[in-house]
Amino acid sequence: MTGYESDKVDFYSKLVDQRKYINKQIANLFKSTDLTGKDLISAGRRQEQSNNNWEVLLSFNSEGGDKFAELTKSIAGSDRLLSIVLDGESISEASVGNQFSKTGITGGSATISGNFTAEEARELEVQLKGGSLPLPVEIIETNTIGALLGNRNIIKSFYAAILGLIFVGLFMIVNYRILGFISVVSLLIYGLFNLALYSLIPVTITLPGIAGLILSLGMAVDANILIFERIRDELKNGNTLIRSIDNGFLRANSSIIDGHITTLISCFILFIVGTNFVKGFAATLGIGVIISLYTSLNCSKTFLRFLTSYQSMRQIKLYLINDKNIINKNLSNKKL
Q: What is the pLDDT of residues 215-240, one digit of tens each?
């Protein structure tokens, strides 16, 4: 919380305390009667027909109606006011017209009018319906939650996603060498495509949405791992590098496409039947899955073909962990 927000909260708390103090002092000016909240049946509100002001409606039981009639009769037409006191604080004060001086307000119902706005009338209605608290309340802790809280969580989640991407990239490079470097470049393009689509659609970034983005990132890495393991298998079987790359993508295609399609079906169902939070997760996950399908099958292959066009990048040791038997086998095949 910034210093400005802290000062703002402190000022508001002091203002509320001052208002409570004034309402208690006003309540002390009135004499208590035998008419209590137990005599009140219901409270409501309605808009006045002649203007845009609102009024509050009261309804008493039979005993309360008699008490209210006697009370309003005693103060009708005078400068004395009728106060509604809740938990020792006066929440509303009203006068009684001279026309009720003979009988008071009878019928067990009454109307409080006084230029109420809709919000003020609703607040008074809720207070009357709720009544006084049976036990005193002590405030143990107060927390103020603002819009910045969600923004901070989103920023932290982005940092977590970037940190995860860095660790995944290091793992891929260490374990797969040149192939791992290709996957990192492919993932960077994947991320740029995601952000571009988020801006074009547009997509509102939420915490569930970030979760969907990170999950789709994992699927993109998994697709690259499937391809690279197939390429490794082909190299270990003695195939040339170019043939291994072509066969690796060809053998991994069906598995990658099937996995992505089943995930897209799940995303579609979640987006149709889910709540707003679930829809955000399904949307970002579905967008990420479509992009990862493109980057893993097209971008990675394009970059590999580009690198292998250079003779110096066709060394088997750049694609496999040092295994002399495998390297020698590939070299002998190359000579043949």
A: 888 888 888 888 888 888 888 888 88
Instruction: Give yes or no for a cis peptide into 202 (omega within 30° of 0).
Output: yes
| Residue type (1 letter), 92 | S
**pLDDT at residue 321, rounded to an integer:** 63
Q: Would 139 be classed as within a structural domain?
A: no
Same domain, 296 and 257: yes
Q: Which two tokens stand for residue 251?
A: 């053998």
Q: Is residue 138 part of a domain?
A: no
* Ordered DSSP codes for 229-298: HHHHHHHHTT--HHHHHHHHHHHHHHHHHHHHHHHHHHHHHHHHHS-HHHHHHHHHHHHHHHHHHHIIII
More confident residue, 276 or 230: 230
Instruction: Kindly state the DSSP code that residue 312 receives in the 8-state scheme.
Output: G
Strands laid side by side in the 109-116 sheet: 40-47, 54-60, 109-116
Residue 139 — very low, low, confident or very high, per pLDDT cuts 50/70/90? low
Average pLDDT, integer, range 115-122: 85
What is the span of the domain harbouring residue 76? 3-130
